[in-house]
Each structure stands twice: as structure tokens, then as C-alpha cells.
Design a protein that fits this description.
11-stranded mixed beta sheet; Peroxisomal Thiolase, Chain A, domain 1; 3-stranded mixed beta sheet; 30% helix; 10 helices; alpha/beta; 371 residues; globular
């Protein structure tokens, strides 16, 4: 089967505009989460990781969301020989809400509200010659976009893929999570006994994948799978078996056993049911001793960007042999005993597993390998 390699990447977030800046921030325990008093988003103060108001501008051809995606793609392309005008290159956009803020400003009557319009706008900006693909499947969107790109490359449809995920936080989005009583009144605590819910976050990230080993940055995407709980519109499986199915299929495709996984980048939203389900899935997969982290304490939940941001940070950490801690975690919460990373450390890591889950019961898993 065709191998798939990471050529370059970018993370644009409140803690940095490049992958290096973001990685350095996390190594120095710098978080983007803080208390915000933004009446345009919420009547009550809330904890989240948001860009400064001056970071993105309004007006003109591109919305704030479009600008965010363009900035991330631009930096990733700058560090890769892969070109958008190559017919062998496909652009994939991952987002959960895109330009939904236009509904709040009264500008949502035109086609700018549609996700495919944003994807086409970005594609034209960079000169991509193929029609872009949009992946929007709740909180696994970023991971699923990477999996979609891998499958297109291994099937021989394309040789390269530029995969970008992004979302901005609006009143519409925040109020939705508030209606579920899922927003934490304090910085989130993934997998902790006293976890009280999520913090939301803004950001974009891009991974450029290629079948050319000569253009590899030293990381390969060796497998991936998706599954669905068919359980509830918002509540995850109570058993974890469906996420475990995605994990087992990913490992089988990658050709490695659970004992060879050196680190797990979990979804880790800090909600009661998600963390419990993930812990059960990890245990069912025979990996309860594998070091696990959640990066939500640094970024918050970045929705359509989450799977891509967290994949990049963790495969970069794998290259350095670095175990990044789960910020906010102190006391084991889930009944299933997993090995949550509490402080930075170093160990040799060759394979990293990324998991994700979302509303509608969707699950995804990816396996990255250090070459």
C-alpha cells in the first residue's frame, strides 16, 4: 500500500502563529485559556481560548474565518515543495461551523454562509485546481479530514493533500454548549475527578500530506478508522466499544500491536461522559498503561481544528521523545484506570495514537509513526 507522509504543518492559535511557536508555548506550560467578558458572545463571563480582537479584521472579501484558514494554509505551503496548482494536490477543509457568525450580524443571506463557499474561496486564493472537499462531522472533523486525505492518497486519487481545519467561537456556538450545561465555570480539567465541562477555543491548523518520501518531515500517517456509537445525539457510548473498534481497526491497518503504541493523544473534553467513555475504550484496547494526554487545557475545544492541532502537537512531541502533560489534571476521575500524563518527561516514542469523539456518536482514530 502507498505510504503517506507529513510534508509540513502549521498551527495558528492564541498561543502562536506557527507550529514552532505553539509547541514552544506548550513546553513552557503557556495556555490560551483565560476568563473573557465579551458581551457580544455571552452575558456571563466565560473561560475560553480566543484570539485578541485585533488578530483578525472584518470587512472585505474574506471573513475572519476565511482569514484564519488562509493564514494557516499559507504558512504550511511556505515550508513545503508541494504546490496548489499541481493536479495531483487536493485541498480539504475541516470545520464544524465555518462562517456561522454571519447569521448573528445579519450577513448570512448570501452564499458566504455555506461551507463549500469558504472552501472554494480559499482554493481560488491559493490556485488549487481541483474542487476542494469539505469535511464537517462534529468534533471528529479534523481527524476525519486527515483520514479522508490518507484514503484518497492510498487509493491513488491524489499524490498530495493540504488538510486544514478551523473554527471561531461565536454566541451561537457558545450558547449551544451552554444549553447542554457543558461549559466549565473554570479552566477545564480533562480526566480529573473534579472536571466540570469544556472550555471552547479558536484556532486553525494545516497538515500537508504526501506519498513522496523525499518530501517527508519524518512522520507518516500509517492508519486510521472511524466508527459510530448509534447511541444518542449528544451523549457518547456508555461502553466505549465503538471507539475501541476504531482504535483496533487503525492498529490493524498500521500493522502494529497495542504494546507498540508509545503515547495516546485523547479527545479529553473534560466532560463527565466523554472522558469516561474514552478511558473505557483505551482499556478495552489493552492500552491502559500507555501515557495519555489531552491538550484541551491549553487550547480549549477547537472544534473542527481540534483533531489537526492535537495531531500536530503530539507527533512533534513524539519526534522529540517528549510526553506533554494534561493541563488541569490532578486527581484520577474516570472509573477506568488509565495512565494520564501529569508532568513533562522524555521517553522513546515511535508510534502515537490520536483519538476523537463527537456529537452524534462519531469516533475516529489515527496512528502516526516516527520514521
Amino acid at each position: 500500500m502507498t505510504e503517506v507522509f507529513v510534508s509540513s504543518d502549521n498551527i495558528t492559535s492564541p498561543v502562536g502563529n506557527t507550529t514552532e511557536e505553539n509547541f514552544d508555548s506548550l513546553k513552557n506550560d503557556i495556555t490560551g485559556i483565560r476568563l473573557h467578558d465579551e458581551s457580544s458572545i455571552s452575558e456571563e463571563p466565560f473561560f475560553a481560548s480566543l484570539f485578541n480582537s485585533s488578530a483578525l479584521t472584518t470587512g472585505g472579501t474574506y471573513t475572519k474565518f476565511d482569514q484564519l484558514v488562509i493564514a494557516s494554509v499559507e504558512d504550511a505551503l511556505r515550508n513545503s515543495p508541494i504546490r496548489p496548482e499541481d493536479p495531483a494536490t487536493i485541498f480539504i477543509l475541516s470545520t464544524t461551523k465555518g462562517n456561522v457568525s454571519l447569521l448573528e450580524t445579519g450577513d448570512g443571506t448570501d452564499n458566504r454562509l455555506s461551507l463549500h463557499h469558504s472552501a472554494n474561496l480559499v482554493a481560488v486564493h491559493f490556485g488549487f485546481v481541483n474542487q476542494p472537499i469539505v469535511v464537517s462531522n462534529a468534533c471528529i472533523s479534523g481527524s476525519l479530514a486527515l483520514l479522508t486525505a490518507r484514503r484518497l492518497i492510498t487509493a491513488g486519487r491524489y499524490q498530495h493533500a493540504v488538510v486544514t481545519g478551523g473554527d471561531l467561537i461565536t454566541r451561537f456556538i457558545l450558547s449551544g454548549f451552554q444549553s447542554f450545561q457543558a461549559i466549565s465555570p473554570e479552566p477545564c480539567k480533562p480526566f480529573d475527578e473534579n472536571r466540570r465541562g469544556i472550555n471552547l477555543g479558536e484556532g486553525a491548523a494545516t497538515v500537508i500530506l504526501t506519498s513522496s518520501k523525499a518530501w517527508s518531515s519524518g512522520i507518516s500517517l500509517d492508519g486510521g478508522s472511524t466508527s459510530n456509537d448509534a447511541n444518542h445525539i449528544s451523549g457518547p457510548s456508555r461502553t466505549g466499544r465503538e471507539l475501541q473498534l476504531a482504535i483496533s481497526r487503525t492498529l490493524k491497518e498500521s500493522g502494529i500491536g497495542p504494546d507498540r503504541v508509545g503515547m495516546i493523544s485523547a479527545h479529553g473534553t473534560a466532560t463527565i461522559f466523554n472522558d469516561e467513555m474514552e478511558a473505557k475504550a483505551i482499556t478495552l484496547s489493552g492500552m491502559q498503561q500507555v501515557p495519555v494526554n489531552s491538550l484541551k487545557g491549553y487550547y480549549g475545544h477547537t472544534l473542527g481544528a481540534a483533531g489537526i492541532i492535537e495531531s500536530i502537537i503530539n507527533y512533534r512531541a513524539m519526534q522529540d521523545g517528549l510526553l506533554l502533560p494534561t493541563r488541569g489534571f490532578s486527581t484520577k476521575g474516570p472509573a477506568t484506570n488509565i495512565n494520564v500524563i501529569t508532568k513533562s518527561g522524555y521517553q522513546k516514542i515511535t508510534h502515537c495514537l490520536k483519538t476523537a469523539s463527537g456529537f452524534g456518536g462519531c469516533n475516529a482514530a489515527l496512528l502516526f509513526t516516527k520514521q
